[in-house]
Design brief:
Blueprint (H helix, E strand, L loop, with lengths): L1 E5 L2 E4 L4 E8 L6 E8 L6 E6 L6 E3 L7 E6 L4 E6 L8 E9 L7 E2 L3 E6 L1
Parallel strand pairs: 2-11
Antiparallel strand pairs: 1-3, 3-8, 4-5, 4-9, 5-6, 7-8, 9-10, 9-11
Length: 118
C-alpha cells in the first residue's frame, strides 16, 4: 500500500490547515489510519487515529479539541483538519496505515511539513 500526504505549509499561529493523505495499492477500508508528527529534535509521535470505518477516533492530548481526523473511503483519503494552530505544532506530519489485523502502523507516507509562525 502506498500513502501520499499533502497539504502542509506555512501558517500563522491561530490559523488552520487541512492535510490529506491518499492511499493506493490496496483496499483502503481494510486499514485503520493515523497521523503522526515529528518536531525538530523530538521523536515521532501519534497525534490522531481513526478506525477503518471511521467510527472510532483517538487524539493525543496536545491536539484534542483543535484537530479532527476523518476519512472518505470512497476517495481512499484520510484528512487531518488542524485549527487554532500553535507554534509548537510545527513538525513534519506523516500519515500511516495499519491493517485491521495488525497492532502496529507499518505503512507510511513521505511526510509533509507544517510550519506555524508566531
Amino acid at each position: 500500500v502506498q500513502l501520499q500526504a499533502s497539504g502542509g505549509g506555512l501558517v500563522q499561529a491561530g490559523g488552520s490547515l487541512r492535510l490529506s493523505c491518499i492511499v493506493s495499492g490496496d483496499t483502503f477500508s481494510d486499514y485503520d489510519m493515523a497521523w503522526f508528527r515529528q518536531a525538530p529534535g523530538k521523536e515521532r509521535g501519534l497525534i490522531a487515529r481513526i478506525s477503518w470505518d471511521g467510527r472510532l477516533t483517538h487524539y493525543a492530548d496536545s491536539v484534542k479539541g483543535r484537530f479532527t481526523i476523518s476519512r472518505d473511503n470512497a476517495k481512499n483519503t484520510v484528512f487531518l483538519q488542524m485549527n487554532s494552530l500553535k507554534v509548537e505544532d510545527t513538525a513534519v506530519y506523516y500519515c500511516a496505515a495499519r491493517s485491521r489485523t495488525s497492532v502496529d502502523f507499518r505503512n507510511w507516507g513521505q511526510g509533509t511539513l507544517v510550519t506555524v509562525s508566531s
